[in-house]
Amino acid sequence: MNTKIVIASLLCGTVALGACKPKAPDILPPDPVETSEPDTGNYQQPQGAVLGSQEHFVNAVNGQNVIYFDTDRYNIDSADAAALQTQAQYLQRYSNISITIEGHCDERGTREYNLALGERRANAAKNYLTSLGVDASRIRTVSYGKEYPIATASNEAAWAQNRRAVSVVIN
Amino acid sequence: MKNVVAVLAFFVATPLAAQDLGAPLPADSAVESVMQDEGEDEGLTFTVSDEGAWDDLGIAIAGFASDRDVPTPANSSGTAALGKEIGRVVFADLKNNGLFKPSGPDSLPQPSFAQITAPAWPTWSSRGAEMLVHGYVQARSDGRLTVGCYLYDVTLQDELARAGWVVQPRDWRRAAHKCADLVYSRLTGENPFFDSRIAYIAETGPKENRTKRLAIMDSDGANHRFITTGRSTALTPRYSPDYSKLLYLSYVDGNPRIYVYDIGTGRQTLITENRNPTFAPRWSPDGKWILYSMAVAGDTDIYRVSSQGGPSVRLTNTPGIDIGGSYSPDGSKIVFESDRSGNQQCYVMNSDGSNQKRISFGGTRCATPEWSPRGDQIAFTNASSFNVSVMSPSGGNVRTLTNGWQDEAPTWAPNGRIIQFFRTERGSGGTSLWQVDLTGRNERKLPTPVDASDPAWGPILP
């Protein structure tokens, strides 16, 4: 995890609030946070943000509301697992909160395949959360394929940020 | 009281989630063929041995003549000016096709009405024209227009083909396209394709937040119309074979789902009443069936449903992504895309889903296969290099036709001689529609008002 990813996460959160009409963020992202520690160490009591808001969720999971995938892949790797465990803790603590998981792909794929691949990624994240005890009825999935990149350059670094599943609180 | 109930029932029956549609389209009117009143067909005087041989064929396309210059809704300056415009459309069609090097009405003398059936041969032979296109336009008492089209061999001083059509004034361009089709078909021996339409996705806005609208246009880009307003993302349209409906994907309810948009009524309905996302809609060649792909718990398979509605039949049943699908022209087979081998490859199955066989090999990824209307080739996206390629229906004779940074989503011209696709620019994400012929030599960008993707070429208009 690095600065870029944390920034990307916060952008995603803002994007998600606008559903399929992403907007520029209203606030600048905070300083990067060291998130390399595995397992359960990342859950923090959120400060300031209102419960039920995306900001509250993103703060609580230290920006780990986004997980990333390798090219053409949808498997949950160890970094993804750690992030999803943090999300699961939040969802278990706040049992009234439901989320949408948005699946995204990079631009180097055909449009229709990427729609299906994004759906597969979102479901992989959903399945992991349900395996941790989160009720499946609290998790909606939607694929945006390659239609909403978070990083707009055409290079490997940008594509790595765009192959993602973003968890978004449903208001 | 009964009336009130009926009205209420109508509103209830109005399909949900139609909020993103713009103004309805005017209904299409028929184009009637008429017999031209003199001359006899002398039969074929040429044989076409090689497409390249036509490159320097001098075809002169004069302005169409009018017996008298009268007002017409088709042109604010009257039928004489309309005749010139018709000549220009025929000229542009034949020029843009790339097979010919025609000269058009703006660089040629204007024939009189009487000369349409009796060309001034010395005028044309002195200009080096080998072929001559003449035509006329007449306003009829019923408000419609009659357009006649004649193809002459200047060297032989002989007529090669003629045809006439009666059209509504707003359909005058269709008569011009039919004339270009007549010339193209007579000279090349190929089936016509100009009198057809294209559905596509019009794109505007920044790369990370593109507005994507369903739009339609004639094969030359004219008569452009937006179907959706752009409030929700629209993708991957497909014209029904009779042009009465459009299948496309819309996020209008927040989820990617396939809708059938009825052009005549302006209403749209979900392809299947199901909570799962649906993608990649396709028509069967006879319009009786619709293929779509549906993801259930992340696993995407291909389904078939009657275009009249009813239950869906699942055609593929492997873990992973099976998507798309394109019927062979006789409707007996379907070529589709699957990542069951580990990456995107193309497969052929019978139309009932049986006998699924991989046809693409050679280390590159095969995506968005589209069967040619002629049946002899399958166009696809090479999803490793992102170029448009063709292969035989058994997967042999692979040829790459394009060389953009990212070219994808081929769609065939009605006659199977030209492929349209969309090209994405590196970095900016800008998109545009392109055409390439089967030699790969004649490539050109289509004019669109804004960026454009997901072209879907319909058949020859009915």
CATH superfamily of chain A: OmpA-like domain
In CATH, what is the class of chain A?
Alpha Beta
The average pLDDT score of chain A comes to 83
Number of helical stretches of at least 4 residues of chain B: 4
Shape of chain A: globular
Q: How far is the N terminus from the C terminus of chain A?
A: 28 Å
Q: Give the structural class of chain B.
A: mainly beta
Supply the CATH architecture of the largest domain in chain B. 6 Propeller
Helix content of chain B: 10-25%
Helical residues, percent of chain A: 25-40%
Low-confidence stretches of chain B: 1-17, 38-53
- Rounded to the nearest angstrom, the radius of gyration of chain A is 14 Å
Largest interface: A-B, 35 and 46 residues
Sheet with most strands of chain A: 4 strands, mixed
Quick one: how many beta strands of chain A?
4
Task: Characterise this structure.
Chain A contains 5 helices and 4 strands, in the order H-H-E-H-E-H-E-H-E. With 171 residues, chain A is an alpha+beta fold. Chain A starts with a helix and ends with a strand. Mean pLDDT of chain A is 83; it is low at 1-30 and 32-40. Chain B is mostly beta strands and 462 residues long. Chain B folds into 2 domains: 32-188, 3-Layer(aba) Sandwich (Rossmann fold); 196-460, Neuraminidase. In chain B, helix 2 (79-96) packs across helix 4 (172-188). The relative contact order of chain B is 0.10.
Walk me through the topology.
The complex is a heterodimer of chains A (171) and B (462).
Chain A: H1 3-17, H2 54-60, E1 66-68, H3 78-93, E2 99-104, H4 111-131, E3 139-145, H5 156-162, E4 164-169
Parallel strand pairs in A: 2-3
Antiparallel strand pairs in A: 1-4, 2-4
Helix pairs in contact in A: 3-4
Chain B: H1 2-13, E1 32-34, E2 59-61, H2 79-96, H3 121-125, E3 131-139, E4 145-153, E5 158-167, H4 172-188, E6 196-204, E7 211-218, E8 225-226, E9 234-239, E10 245-250, E11 257-262, E12 268-270, E13 278-283, E14 289-296, E15 299-306, E16 313-314, E17 322-327, E18 333-338, E19 345-350, E20 357-358, E21 366-371, E22 378-382, E23 387-391, E24 399-400, E25 406-412, E26 418-424, E27 431-437, E28 443-445, E29 451-460
Parallel strand pairs in B: 2-3
Antiparallel strand pairs in B: 1-5, 3-4, 4-5, 6-7, 6-29, 7-8, 9-10, 10-11, 11-12, 13-14, 14-15, 15-16, 17-18, 18-19, 19-20, 21-22, 22-23, 23-24, 25-26, 26-27, 27-28
Helix pairs in contact in B: 2-4
